[in-house]
Amino acid sequence: KQEVTQIPAALSVPEGENLVLNCSFTDSAIYNLQWFRQDPGKGLTSLLLIQSSQREQTSGRLNASLDKSSGRSTLYIAASQPGDSATYLCALRDSGYALNFGKGTSLLVTP
Amino acid sequence: NAGVTQTPKFQVLKTGQSMTLQCAQDMNHNSMYWYRQDPGMGLRLIYYSASEGTTDKGEVPNGYNVSRLNKREFSLRLESAAPSQTSVYFCASRVTEYGYTFGSGTRLTVV
């Protein structure tokens, strides 16, 4: 069974810092990997989707990379803002139909 | 531009009561999913429907039933609610190799 681990579980940074969230997985035979954002009491918002054939995807201040051989993905957030405070979830789809989720990194950006 | 719509948003049930959680998507997606999210457990798949007319069990199906009413709608039914089913329930949909789109969730408390 695919295991998805996100480190750290929680992170607090001052506004303006660049930061990296990590996601590791045990089975490299994946179709794609998706990063989500979840605000407290809210649903999941898709941030970036990386197909298995891709190495990275960018959207604004966000950049996600994928290294299947090492079983790792990173989400880079540039020039963090208080509005970036949320839980970030990594999820990947392998040969099954379901997404396998990590437990998330809770990010707090302080003014 | 509704995406995935879930109803109700909040519900309190007594042990033994039944209810149906409704989900509808307007993106013409083939696949639909029901997840539950619990503190410390992450998101776990309850049931999914790869296409209209098919349903399959996920990781935690016990105590639930589903119906794929048509391509748009996928409902989740609790026949006899138990306190262990207190959770946040998310519906999601997907088409081919694109990412998943999630609804805003149903917060269910069973007392």
Structural write-up:
The complex is a heterodimer of chains A (111) and B (111). By secondary structure, chain A is mainly beta. Chain A contains no helices and 11 strands. In chain A, a hairpin with a 2-residue loop joins strand 6 and strand 7. The model of chain A has no long low-confidence stretch (mean pLDDT 94). Chain B is mainly β and 111 residues long. Chain B is 0% helix and 52% strand. In chain B, a hairpin with a 5-residue loop joins strand 7 and strand 8 (74-78). The model of chain B has no long low-confidence stretch (mean pLDDT 93). The A-B interface holds A 31-32, 34, 36, 41-46, 49, 51, 89, 91, 97-99, 101-104 and B 31, 33, 40-43, 45, 48, 50, 56, 58-59, 90, 92, 97-105, 107.
Summary keywords:
heterodimer, A: 111 residues, mainly beta, 5-stranded antiparallel sheet, 0% helix, 58% strand, B: 111 residues, 7-stranded mixed sheet, 11 strands, globular
Please give a quick description of this structure:
With about 110 residues, chain A is mostly beta strands. Chain A has strands at about 5, 10-15, 20-25, 30-40, 45-50, 55-60, 60-65, 70-75, 85-95, 100, 105-110. Chain B has strands at about 5, 10-15, 20-25, 30-40, 40-50, 55, 65-70, 75-80, 85-95, 100, 105-110.
